[in-house]
Amino acid sequence: MTSKNAPLLSCTKLTFSYPKNVVLDNISLEFGIQSQHLNAQENNKTSGEFVGLIGANGAGKSTLLKLLTGISKPNQGEVTLSGASLKTFKRKLIAQYISFVPQDTSIDYAFSVREVVAMGRHPHLKSFEPEGEYDQSRIMHAMEKTDLLKMADRSVTELSGGERQRVFIARALAQETPILILDEPTASLDLCHQLEVLALLKTLAREGHVIITAIHDLNMAARFCDRLIILANQQVVADGKPEEILTESHLRQHFSVEARVDKSDEDGFIRITALQPVSHICSA
Ligand SMILES: Nc1ncnc2c1ncn2[C@@H]1O[C@H](COP(=O)(O)OP(=O)(O)OP(=O)(O)O)[C@@H](O)[C@H]1O
């Protein structure tokens, strides 16, 4: 049963371990304020947010994102979608509400760009149901927004890493889900495409989507995200607005770097200048 007042997505007391190491311990988070998105007829536009998940290499960002999508299962704790346990949702139903852009975008089979983007429509279609006009318009729109129209017929196996990353982002856009979860979606993109993709995600958040992305570029995170969460020592160690989170003390403690943090008079964004590592060993 879903509940109207529950957050769109939340996790409670999540713990995840590999045989030799605990990665996440007792993580509780809430994303999005209301759940009207789960009623396809309603179009609530107030609960969107653009959340950046940050932390050193190995801090557990990808692991948490996979737990939130239901791809991985927690050892303890629960993920809920609009108040209902993710365990009660079939995979196809989850895919109507959560799209995922993985860190690894390699594909072995020579699908065309359009074919991969069109896979974003599968959760909305019955088995073997052909795309309708609406599906086709969403596929075209997603390719247009990610600058892929000119390579729609090319094989994904022949694309650069950044081009392939955009194909996966387009697939997520075509999926038209209220929640988008992305694992370092701009890691391979050139500066222009980074700005375009982050601005697009911000627009989606303004339109009511919940966007959760792992991101290493803290200046980009400061500029585009509404909220930042730092993972360190298997825990959420900070959660708030970028200017509250990106402090020199947090950067020293959780990113092992001496940095200068300034707020621009021009646009009000935080600017981080990394000065030097705290020691020769960067810690998670
Ligand atoms: N299949 C696995 N088996 C064992 N340990 C793993 C496995 N996958 C990841 N880990 C470990 O889990 C921890 C968290 O990994 P995760 O990929 O979630 O970190 P991350 O914060 O996303 O890192 P990065 O910034 O480098 O992408 C790391 O210590 C990693 O070595």
UniProtKB/TrEMBL annotation:
The keyword ATP-binding applies. Residues 22-258 form the ABC transporter domain. Gene3D superfamilies: P-loop containing nucleotide triphosphate hydrolases. Keywords: ATP-binding, Nucleotide-binding, Translocase, Transport. Pfam families: ABC_tran. InterPro entries: AAA+_ATPase, ABC_transporter-like_ATP-bd, ABC_transporter-like_CS, P-loop_NTPase. PROSITE patterns: ABC_TRANSPORTER_1, ABC_TRANSPORTER_2. Part of the ABC transporter complex HmuTUV involved in hemin import. Responsible for energy coupling to the transport system. This is ABC transporter domain-containing protein.
